[in-house]
Specification:
Elements: H1 18-42, H2 46-49, E1 54-60, E2 65-68, H3 74-77, H4 80-94, E3 103-106, E4 118-127, E5 130-140, E6 170-174, E7 177-178, H5 180-189, H6 193-221, H7 223-246, E8 251-261, E9 271-282, E10 285-289, H8 306-322, H9 325-328, E11 341-344, H10 363-378, E12 393-401, E13 404-412, H11 440-446, E14 449-456, E15 472-478, E16 482-488, E17 508-513, E18 516-520, E19 523-529, E20 534-538, H12 553-561, H13 567-574, H14 586-594
Parallel strand pairs: 10-11
Antiparallel strand pairs: 1-2, 1-5, 3-4, 3-6, 4-5, 6-7, 8-9, 9-10, 12-13, 12-16, 14-15, 15-20, 16-19, 17-18, 17-20
Amino acid sequence: MTPAPLRQPVPKPDRIDPITTSVIQGALENIAIEMGYKLMRMSYSSIIRESEDFGAALVDAEGRGLAESAQSTPLQSGPIPGYIRGILKTLADRGEAIRPGDVIMHNDAYSGASHGPDVAFVVPVFVGTRLIAFAATTAHHLDIGALSPGSCGIVEAIDAYAEGLQFKAIKVYDRGVRNDAVWQIVRDNIRASDLVVGDMDAQVAAARIGAERLVELIERYGVETFDMACGALMDHAERLMRQAIAKLPDGVYRAETAIDGYLDSPDANKKELPIVVTITKKDDSLIVDLTGTAPQVPDRPINMPLEGTADIAIWLTIRSVLLDTEIHGHIPVNAGLIRPITIIAPKGCLANPTFPAPTIARFCPGNQLADTVMKALSAAMPNNVSAGIGNLKVIAFSGLKDETHWVHMEIFEGSYGGRQGKDGMDAVDTLYANTRNNPIEDIETHLPLRVLRYELREDVTGAGKWRGGLGSVREFTFLSDGGASVEGEGHRYRPWGFLGGSEGAPAKLDLETGGTTRALPSKVPHMNIAKDGRFICYGPAGGGYGNPLERDPADVVDDVLDGVISVETALRDYGVVISAKGVVDVAATEKARASR
């Protein structure tokens, strides 16, 4: 009998072909997207279901991002690798191991989380006994047990402990066994607990789905091929970013803007705070230096975690400007994109606070940081940026009915500045805050609120060859006694104009109660509001791009006919004379413009 030949070991491949790599990339992205959609459909609260204020991502065992959910907000998906790195360090410090069946909850703003209300649920992905990756979801929760209802509008927290519950790598499932005590603590310390815990359960389920899909993918191709594909994808993303950076002129690009802070405070250290960005470009890398940014505010929560907020604002803006998908097509979003970028942020500044400085209201300052990065890049890539954005605000509406809290977070839109060849976008969330608005029907169906107005703000815009985007006006009235708090920006400073464009218009907020109207600052701590009290929110207008006298008169008359601007504004800002018949008086317009 002839002996069977010895089976030769299958050699491990030393490289991977681009087609297989591309297929695995598509699979990773689709898994993240599926996680996101499953989370949306299983969630209870409108902040996730309608506004899409959530994240979903896949991260390798070292904490390097592999793919993120395309339909979620960058401020949720982008920080997930930082959450993972924070969890790994925290568990290592405690001597705890990660095992199959674990589900880990984390929201530590000083260990990767964006801020406390953005709670992550993380499922480790094992193949055999090897930890390969993590599937994770994040979401902004309606309440986190802070000093007042809601998880936005907390603008007077004096430290991290006043901002609500802190979860530092807590196993809510340990080797598949639910930790009921942890879940009970959450329920007992959070308002609107049915909604919040329901959303958390949805996050766990969506992360588990992602983990299952990832195991199927790895088993299909093998661990070695999967590892090589992930490495190749990160290297590819890095090459794309370095090639884009290399096209910029070497040099130093600096910009400065500012945030309101607490305009009604007598303390000068709490208001009118500068944000400074200096970008140094050399060869194919960038250094982003935040030196000059205001010191942290130790007892007010407008500080930005460096990892989780400030870094995301910087990376997202650079990626958007240098690798615009309209020009470059689909860009893989993974850890390779950030390798050429170094961030310097002095310890103790607004963008790199020290514990326990509070951070829960970091949303609008972070968006202003992104706008400042855009302004710095405008000197290097003027055709790829917008003029100054109109920042956002969030109102936390709340009330008590039959011993049960109701809480609603309304993300009130900003606007974009004008762009090369295009007007700014009207009444939208901006830069890293690309959540959707809440439909009126959803608000009025579920809450004791009525929306009396929702319209574009007329005759207030940044004039330019391409005008800034319009803000909106939204008016809410309480149908029963309740309360509200406000976290916002952009009441003091106007969005910057670019290349001769005019500055935009600031936001404002009015409260009507008992027949009187009171103007409010951009940050308002929780206040009780009686039935029929009204909030009237006026969104900011983005800055103009280019000389307004170069705007096509036909576009100006269209804006007049649409009610965007008045006839008087057309003449004052654009030098365009419009006749009583609603058409451009060409001769008068030429004369008016020549006289400027």
